[in-house]
Design goal:
314 residues, alpha/beta, 9-stranded mixed sheet
């Protein structure tokens, strides 16, 4: 099993594969800050469902070399390189939070390889026409994203010492967020299993440098390099209506523009509830695409709820 892959421009990407080695492949693109060891279903769950889950550190995170000035669209070449190295031709892709736009980029630009894509608690492009991008967003995120967009040098200068402090004590990040969490999110991140996964994830994300986080924020607030309307593969947009870190209006905006999108909006859920939703999302991603019509979806997108129950990831 390969744990490092070299890109065409000489960078190393750190890769982790879990679940059934012969299972159907799904790329799981982590959040911000995040890493290949971020929260995911247990290996036994993946084995039982014949799933091969592939994660890797985006450039600058964990064990992956930095790619200065990267855009969201640059994820496509990295995912393709990892898939080629693992001998995978066709695959599904999911992204959570900061990874969600990256999953959409793969769907837009690799329709011949991506079977289905899921974007959980993601963001819309910063220049999304008709969307009040900051509406409903927590003050901390408004401040960080606005600074990244208007004064990137100041943003970097602030994030470097913050990143160093979180690397020394990852609990610090959860404590910073605590006063903005909903009761449901607070309960989720207090679960010992999830909390352990999150802390390990943050520590690994920032282990070598702050620049994965820096470059993610700059990429998300800059031009993505593709248009969501270009996406032709089936897309699932999952969002908690009470999310204040990436408001659900972003998924609604995307659902209105992606031709074959289905929006799942959970009325009582918020940001971290996406961890609970992931097992069901994987089931959807691996459904037989031949059972679904290839015709574009109607202008009015289906909106569903899944009635998530409090539980740790399967």
């Amino acid at each position: 099993m390969r744990d490092h892959v070299r890109t065409g421009d000489g960078r190393l990407l750190r890769v982790e594969v879990s679940g059934d080695p012969r299972g159907r492949p799904v790329f799981l693109l982590h959040g911000m800050p995040g890493s290949r060891v971020g929260p995911r279903p247990r290996s036994m769950f993946l084995y039982q469902r014949g799933t091969r889950l592939i994660s890797y550190d985006r450039p600058g995170y964990g064990g992956s070399d930095r790619m200065p000035g990267r855009r969201v669209v640059d994820v496509v070449q990295d995912v393709a390189v990892v898939a080629d190295a693992l001998g995978i031709e066709r695959f599904a892709v999911a992204g959570r939070s900061g990874g969600a736009p990256h999953a959409l980029a793969c769907a837009a630009l690799m329709p011949e390889r991506v079977t289905r894509a899921a974007a959980l608690v993601g963001l819309a492009p910063r220049n999304a026409e008709g969307l009040d991008w900051f509406a409903g967003m927590a003050p901390s995120n408004v401040n960080e994203f606005r600074t990244a967009f208007t004064d990137p040098e100041r943003f970097v200068a602030r994030l470097i010492p913050r990143s160093a402090a979180i690397r020394r004590d990852p609990v610090r990040l959860l404590e910073e967020l605590r006063h903005e969490l909903t009761d449901d999110d607070r309960q989720i991140v207090s679960d010992n299993t999830i909390r352990s996964m999150l802390l390990r994830n943050y520590r690994e994300a920032l282990r070598t440098s702050p620049y994965g986080w820096v470059d993610d924020a700059l990429a998300l607030t800059g031009g993505w390099g593709f248009e969501p309307a270009e996406i032709q593969v089936p897309v699932l947009l999952w969002h908690g209506v009470k999310d204040v870190f990436s408001p659900a209006s972003h998924s609604s905006w995307l659902a209105a523009r992606i031709p074959r999108a289905t929006a799942v909006l959970e009325p009582t859920a918020a940001h971290f509830a996406a961890l609970r939703a992931l097992p069901k999302v994987l089931t959807w991603l691996l459904a037989d695409p031949t059972t679904e019509s290839l015709a574009p979806a109607a202008p009015t997108r289906p909106v569903r709820t899944w009635g998530l129950r409090p539980q740790t990831p399967a």
